[in-house]
Amino acid sequence: MADRLAATLALDEPASRVKLVSPARAQALAGLGVRTVRDLLTHFPRRYIDLSKRETVAGARIGGSCTIQGSVHEVKLKRPRPNLALVEIAVVDATGVLMVTCFRQPWLKDQIKLGMGIAVAGKVEFDYGFKRMVNPYIEQLGDGQMAEGMIIPVHPACEKISAAWMRRLVGNALDAVQGCYDPLPLDLRVRYRLMARGAALSCIHFPHTMGEVAEARRRLVYEELLLLELALMSQAAQRAAGAQPTAHVVDGPCAAALDCVMPFTLTEEQQQARADILARMAAPEAANHMLLGDVGTGKTAVAAFALAAVADTGAQAALMAPTEVLARQHAASLGKWFDEVGVTWGLLTGSTSDDERARLLEGAADGGICVLIGTHALLEPDVRFKRLTLAVIDEQQRFGVEQRAALLSKGQAPDALYLTATPIPRTLALAVFGDMTLSYIKHRPNDSARRTTHVVSKADQGRAYDAAREALARDEQVYVVCPLIGQDAEARDKRAGGRGREADEEAYEFASISIESDADFAGDNVTAATKEASYLQQTVFADWHVELLHGRMKPADKDAVMGRFRDNETQVLVATTVIEVGVDVPNATVMIVMDADRFGLSQLHQLRGRVGRGEKPAQVFLVSTSKSEQSLARLAAMERTDDGFELAKYDLSLRREGDILGNRQSGASALKLVNIVRDERVIQAAHADAAAIMAADPGLAEPDHQALALELRRTFPEQAPAR
């Protein structure tokens, strides 16, 4: 038993405790996010190579994937550009020559020797008169060794730790935790016929068959999800502990009057969402509700009824938006309705004058202001409410967990209503927001304007500019979006984690450069950005006024630029993704997104939601410099559908779930194996099982749950039940 406990505790020891992990290797592992033994064991293979399926060079089918064994005839290191190194290896067998090209792996020149026996596995192409493989998996073979009967895991590696060394280190980590306790209760393992944890880790890293991989993955996916659901539910229980929630009045005069003053009738989906939210607010428990609606579906109008219910209850509400532009937009739209129905309100942002700020703080403290709309300024310590019973957080994925908690802490167990335009499929919402109830609005109320999307190559971008000039001639307006304005492709690659575009294609990590707040613009070359806008002003759009909008600008300057664009004093807005949220200019009908392959599909869909918001048809042009079939296939999905939820589901089938939510989402990084599309039934089962465990044993104090409680505290120390 002591040995089992020691093995369990070893999971959270530094990775340097693993055999053969030297200080230099520990530093290299840290660069991959691997700092503990647990991190090393969950550094799962990204693919597997079955070396028993071999082909000869002559028999290999072009366009197919296979393994070819041969000897090294020649090795060359080439530098076609100063910042690009590639190694070219000629592999020969009895039937012919295969050329192998390895980008950004110059160390292979010293590792691969003439006459060495190797096996290479990858996709076969034909170029310059030879069959070729680009960045294949390479296995060095000993004298007389045949590449048969082996399934080789391919772990994410780096220059200082090769894939072969990573396998060795993972194997040593498995030895260090052999016999560790299984956190899953026995009844769950029996019910679902799940492997023990030790066996699952061994089989996913070093399988004998691909069937073992599937069973190991099934066990570990369920474990990931169960732990995440328990953490989320524990966090929700802790938030409400010891506080008295408010049962709101949801059929009072303000809410009834609001229905009359709105200049439109809510759609069926909006009415259902309103009913869901108000039912949660009327209950004696603290509501924790998320309203998910695609771009332009009218979430704010629905949220207005929740705010009116607070007024009818004689309490207060806060509405927090991620940008001052969006906060002012909410104040403009909601404020006129609230004035008509008698709901007092105010707007607090970073640029609010001292006198106005003092008035707002006094109104919040004495209850004179019912609804306070604002930005992060609402989180300041001197912002105090007399009786805060509802916190509405718009575009909630743009706020960190601590920021959301800080706003909720300003009341006694206030109801929480989160709004998001990120199209999150229900299965993903269950997985990452398992402690919340959900409502969806999937259709836009006024969808008369037709919006089309076109993918064009860099060489054909003139087509996009022509369409933009035609729109400008009709007195319409244009967005030009750049992923990281003022930085070249190499700088963007470094910002994405130092990997080149060739390597990125397989792992689909482009969204790692996504911009979520002004802090993400640190180090941007504003001078270069200004020159880029100036170039467009002087050439492509010489007859119209062009302005630049970026995240390093002061709030007042951003507001001024957006004000001129809204008023059509500026016709072309060159911007970063700062326009993704909160910009509503119905006259903007054309958007050109440069380097579109650098974005995830969901973010592109968010961006294109800025055009086609009025009566006029709109066009979106996605300019791609990539020649990769994978990238072009991804972007083609944008042409096929305008449904954000359908795109999100497709996006999730290609990449990790955390990417779609942004790096500020609690729990997203814990989902290392989960695939939302494939694992829908597992997600539902884990959610139900976690709810049953929390209902029966909220503190996880029972003997069968002690190992589970330890694992939860180690994985989610902030959300685990208090001991």
Structure report:
By secondary structure, this protein is α/β, with parallel strands linked by helices. Helix content is 39%, strand content 19%. The protein has 26 helices and 23 strands. The strands form four sheets. Strands 2, 3, 4, 5, 6, 7, 8 and 9 form an eight-stranded mixed beta sheet that branches. α13 links the parallel β13 (345-348) and β14. α7 crosses α8 (210-240) and α15 (426-432) runs parallel beside α25 (680-696). Mean pLDDT is 84; it is low at 486-490, 492-524 and 656-668.
Largest sheet: 8 strands, mixed
DSSP, total strands: 23
Summed up, the helix count is 26
Strand content: 15-25%
Structural class: alpha/beta
Helix fraction, binned, reads: 25-40%
Oligomer: single chain
The mean pLDDT is 84
Cα-atom radius of gyration: 28 Å
> Runs with pLDDT <50, length 5+?
486-490, 492-524, 656-668
